[in-house]
Design a protein that fits this description.
InterPro entries: RNMT_CmcI, SAM-dependent_MTases_sf. GO terms for molecular function: methyltransferase activity. Pfam families: RMNT_CmcI. The protein contains eight helices and nine strands. The chain is α/β, with parallel strands linked by helices and 223 residues long. The chain has a single domain, classed as Rossmann fold (3-Layer(aba) Sandwich). Helix 2 (43-56) packs parallel to helix 3 (70-82) and helix 6 crosses helix 7 (185-195). The structure holds S-adenosylmethionine. The site of S-adenosylmethionine has 21 residues, from helix 3 and strand 4.
Length: 223
């Protein structure tokens, strides 16, 4: 059987897209838990992140958009399993949903402010000065294009060659879910790449690895 025949590849793409829509439109992602804490993601993306973290071996993980803290908890446990000195900085404008289990983890630092506040970039710079090694950053806060673009711009001076950035939820506004949502992360990435075409290399192999991702065009390695 020729698994690379164009008809079979097109059929596989169709299955992956329908699974993506089923997973998103039925809110499966909203029911995902890590050690009991809501973690609002695609489980395929979580496994990709685990593999990226093992390859990258970061000393710092920066997350914009904490919510309950399930993803920060996931990143801290995977990251510390790889590098016991790892720290996680997670930023949100709200903390009323933050799970106490997450607040008790010494490796996790929570900042209550907007991700685009200049204090955030300043704190990242401080942490980087005390934690030699690569950084993994993930954007999952306000998904409107201007905000995501501002987040990418604020990270520009703190990202170094070899660091890894994931811009989540670029699947909305019809890529392929929530058509008509309006310009979001996908459009922010396109605008950033238009302004700074040489900053990042798109990691398409990661996007494709598990059939679908919530972050199309959003797996980016700093050049
Ligand atoms: C999708 S949730 C984050 C989910 C979490 N990362 C996870 O995977 O479980 C988005 C969060 O972004 C926060 N948020 C919205 N605007 C923000 C901003 N300007 N700066 C930081 N966080 C913001 C919201 O309060 C919300 O908790």
């Amino acid at each position: 059987m020729d698994t690379n025949h164009p008809d079979r590849l097109a059929a596989a793409d169709d299955v992956a897209e329908r699974f993506h829509r089923w997973y998103y439109d039925n809110g499966v992602w909203e029911t995902v838990r890590f050690l009991g804490v809501p973690c609002l993601k695609s489980v395929m993306d979580l496994w990709n992140y685990q593999e990226i973290l093992f390859e990258l071996k970061p000393s710092l993980i920066v997350e914009f958009g904490t919510r309950h803290g399930g993803s920060a908890l996931y990143f801290s446990m995977i990251g510390q399993g790889i590098n016991p000195l790892l720290r996680v900085l997670t930023v949100d404008i709200e903390d009323h949903l933050l799970d106490p289990q997450v607040s008790r983890v010494p490796a996790i630092e929570f900042m209550k402010c907007s991700s685009t506040d200049s204090a955030v970039a300043a704190r990242i710079t401080e942490l980087r000065n005390s934690l030699p090694g690569p950084m993994f950053a993930i954007l999952d806060s306000d998904h409107h294009q201007p905000h995501v673009l501002q987040e990418m711009l604020s990270l520009r001076s703190v990202m170094r060659s070899g660091d890894y950035l994931v811009v989540e939820d670029s699947n909305i506004n019809g890529h392929p879910v929530l058509p008509g949502w309006g310009p979001g992360p996908f459009e922010a990435i396109a605008e950033y790449v238009r302004q700074f075409p040489d900053d990042y290399v798109r990691d398409e192999a990661r996007e494709c690895k598990f059939g679908f991702t919530f972050a199309p065009a959003g797996f980016l390695r700093r050049a």
